[in-house]
Amino acid sequence: MSDRDVLLNLTQSLLESIVQGNWKAYEEMCDPSISCFEPEALGNLVEGMDFHRYYFDLERSGDVKVQTTITSPHVRLMGDAAIVSYIRLTQSLNASGIPSSRACEETRVWEKQAGEWKHVHVHRSPPGN
């Protein structure tokens, strides 16, 4: 399997851990010093896992079906680092039980540490921003 395919599979697994609320899987894929720019950070660069852990600790309804799809992926390898950029489509049911979709632009930076890819940075924003 090529590094590109490995990184895309890792990114999809990371997104699935988020949707499923699987903190253990998410934590295993991330470097403890991960940094992010996300809408929830209100324009601030946030570092470390505590910010992310908060969202995993929120109570989730077990019957909500959510699907995440990576579209238009682009992978750039730079030695022991890689950038994976894509549009993330998320499908779910709204409060009325009607299917809805939303999109966001994501860039994830991975670093090879001791032969294993670790997620070290994410930048997520609404499309077109």
From TrEMBL:
InterPro entries: Ca/CaM-dep_prot_kinase-assoc (IPR013543), NTF2-like_dom_sf (IPR032710). SUPFAM superfamilies: NTF2-like (SSF54427). GO terms for molecular function: calcium/calmodulin-dependent protein kinase activity; calmodulin binding. Keywords: Kinase, Transferase. Residues 7-126 form the Calcium/calmodulin-dependent protein kinase II association-domain domain. The keyword Hydrolase does not apply. Gene3D superfamilies: 3.10.450.50. It comes from the Bacteria. This is Calcium/calmodulin dependent protein kinase II Association. The lineage of its organism: Bacteria, Pseudomonadati, Planctomycetota, Planctomycetia, Pirellulales.
